[in-house]
TrEMBL record:
It holds the Pfam family COX1. InterPro entries: Cyt_c_oxase-like_su1_dom, Cyt_c_oxase-like_su1_sf, Cyt_C_Oxase_1, Cyt_c_Oxase_su1_BS. Residues 24-532 form the Cytochrome oxidase subunit I profile domain. PROSITE patterns: COX1, COX1_CUB. This is Cytochrome c oxidase subunit I. The lineage of its organism: Bacteria, Pseudomonadati, Pseudomonadota, Alphaproteobacteria, Acetobacterales. Residues 510-560 are annotated as: Disordered. Belongs to the heme-copper respiratory oxidase family. Signal peptide: none annotated. The chain crosses the membrane at residues 40-61, 81-102, 123-145, 165-192, 204-231, 251-275, 287-307, 319-338, 359-379, 391-417, 429-450, 470-497. GO terms for molecular function: cytochrome-c oxidase activity; heme binding. GO terms for cellular component: membrane. It comes from Dankookia rubra. GO terms for biological process: aerobic respiration; electron transport coupled proton transport; respiratory electron transport chain. Gene3D superfamilies: Cytochrome c oxidase-like, subunit I domain.
Length: 560
């Protein structure tokens, strides 16, 4: 199918009005900005760096696992490598990526506001995030931590010889940034919506960011508390988790997973919002069952706090508790299934356009569905006992967190890139990258399901030879996946110099963010918008946006 097209820039047209990118110049104007759009770009730069720093740990892991013997890393170095990879990726990429980049940039635009409710707090949250991330990278590079990203006790408090306290402090400090951002988002949605923008006229992306922010505010203090208890035991010898001195290591697991399972939804709920925006735009149809989609988002954010015990089926908890957590885990899968069904129903009889953002969205639906179905396996007590601490768990986690969240992030960037930068990227390369990401991810992580079911334990750097073929497949897939991650960096950068100018609404999308210029002015809107209808008012008979001249946005050189 032909892609949704954009109007051609008119040669000799007068220069555009100043945007948020050009209204102020100089390094100080960026480092001291309170503009939510610029702060989003600061987060984008920082999170991109952390993504590739954390990815370096994954590269070391995959190279080591290419053969059954320890050719590159010792046992201790391998432990430090996957801890490094996990800590950076979870707390400095997956959790902040979509909320702090796309949420920061789009939330005020989507609700017709000039900025977030607390602009200075927004900037402060970035500086806190940078301080925490710098401390984490320094800690992990200057000796590292060998406990794994979960910081399990009593290994963390009594036996590890790594920089546990400094790593825990980095994660602890990052929580202040998370809470500050969440409070800002909640206040903005409550207080700064445009006239006429009632709750059930909000875009689903706004609902997803709002629900995620509530989870952040409620769950992050629990993580801070458990990290403070680790500090108290390791630094001052207070017996909290050490069983040799009367402590309870299972208490740590309860506290940690009470935070960390809701943290799964901190990572994936924003992805749901992104995919909802992409599917409805490129199907040219209203979202099927909008109200059910909203209730599903809120249901996930609530029930997500009640299922932490399914991470602890082999911890010695009672059978009754395991059965209760198993049932709740099946229940929390229902709203996720509703969302997949509604996305599919939205596509049904739609005038689907297979541009890059839509391909990323379809890849997300496929990967998330596989991850969700395998989550049901792990919610079943007998199956979970069989595959606990195997590569089956690694594969499930990555299908949800990485396959889902990263596909949504790249899809969202491709969709809103013209709005963020005012430039169009080469569509052909973007489609190629989206397809390659889906298949590269499958080649990397699907073999891990097979390995895990056959009994290959995770966190082992030496393994029986019969598993080598699966590790070789995974490592080869990782090469494809890495290229799929790197390629968009190239064509996005290309677009900044040679990309054609983007009109205000290149996709013919609905939503307030498309009713201002690309890129937006400093205060978002020249005239405060008024909302008179619900979201996603698409008409299937119009497959694309009205334009004087339609043309696929292939690379043709920079236009005036």
């Amino acid at each position: 199918m032909s892609g949704i097209t954009a109007e051609r820039a008119i040669p000799g047209a007068p220069p555009r009005e100043p945007s948020y990118l050009t209204a102020k110049t100089g390094l100080a104007s960026w480092l001291l900005t309170t503009d939510h759009k610029r702060i989003a770009l600061l987060y984008m730069a920082a999170i991109t760096v952390f993504f590739f720093v954390g990815g370096a740990g994954a590269v070391a892991i995959r190279i080591e696992l290419f053969t059954p013997q320890a050719d590159l890393l010792s046992a201790d170095a391998y432990n430090r490598a996957f801890t490094f990879h996990g800590v950076i990726m979870v707390w400095f990429f997956l959790i902040p990526s979509i909320p702090n980049i796309l949420g920061n940039f789009l939330l005020p635009l989507m609700i017709g506001a000039k900025d977030l409710a607390f602009p200075r707090l927004n900037l402060a949250s970035w500086y806190i995030f940078m301080a925490a991330g710098g401390l984490a990278v320094y800690t992990l590079l200057s000796g590292g931590v060998d406990t794994g990203w979960t910081f399990y006790t009593p290994l963390t408090t009594a036996f590890s010889n790594g920089n546990v306290l400094a790593a825990a402090a980095a994660v602890f400090v990052s929580g202040f940034s998370t809470i500050a951002t969440a409070v800002n988002f909640i206040a903005t949605v409550h207080l700064q919506r445009a006239p006429g923008l009632t709750w059930f006229r909000l875009p689903l992306f706004v609902w997803a960011i709002y629900a995620t922010s509530i989870v952040m505010v409620l769950a992050t203090p629990v993580l801070a508390m458990v990290l403070a208890l680790i500090f108290a035991e390791r630094a001052f010898g207070i017996p909290i988790f050490d069983p040799l001195r009367g402590g309870d290591p299972i208490l740590f697991q309860h506290l940690f997973w009470f935070y960390s399972h809701p943290a799964v939804y901190i990572m994936v709920l924003p992805s749901f919002g992104v995919i909802s925006e992409l599917v409805t735009c490129y199907a040219r149809r209203r979202v099927f069952g909008y109200n059910f989609m909203v209730y599903a988002i809120l249901w996930i954010s609530l029930v997500g706090f009640l299922v932490w015990g399914h991470h602890m089926f082999v911890s010695g908890q009672s059978l009754f508790a395991s059965l209760a957590f198993s049932l709740l885990s099946f229940i929390v899968a229902v709203p996720s299934a509703i969302k997949v069904f509604n996305w599919t129903a939205t596509l049904y009889r739609g005038q689907i356009v297979f541009d890059a953002p839509m391909i990323y969205a379809l890849g997300f639906i496929g990967l998330f569905t596989i991850g969700g179905l395998t989550g049901l396996f792990l919610a079943s007590v007998p199956v979970d006992i069989h595959v606990t601490d195997t590569y089956f768990v690694v594969a499930h986690f990555h299908y949800i967190m990485v396959g889902g969240a990263v596909s949504a992030l790249y899809g969202g960037l491709a969709f809103w890139w013209p709005k963020i930068t005012g430039r169009l990227y080469p569509e052909g390369w973007a489609r190629f990258a989206a397809i390659m990401m889906f298949f590269g991810f499958g080649f990397t992580f699907f073999p891990m399901f097979i390995m895990g079911y056959l009994g290959m334990p995770r966190r082992y750097h030496v393994y029986p030879e019969e598993f080598q073929v699966w590790h070789v497949l995974a490592s080869a897939g990782a090469v494809i996946l890495a290229f799929a991650y790197l390629l968009p960096m190239g064509f996005f950068a290309w677009s900044l110099i040679w990309g054609r100018r983007a009109p205000a609404n290149p996709w013919g999308a609905t939503g307030l963010e498309w009713q201002t210029s690309s890129p937006p002015p400093e205060e978002n809107f020249h005239t405060p918008p008024v909302v008179e209808q619900g979201p996603y008012n698409y008409h299937p008979e119009h497959a694309g946006p009205p334009a004087l001249e339609r043309e696929q946005h292939q690379p043709q050189g920079r236009q005036p």
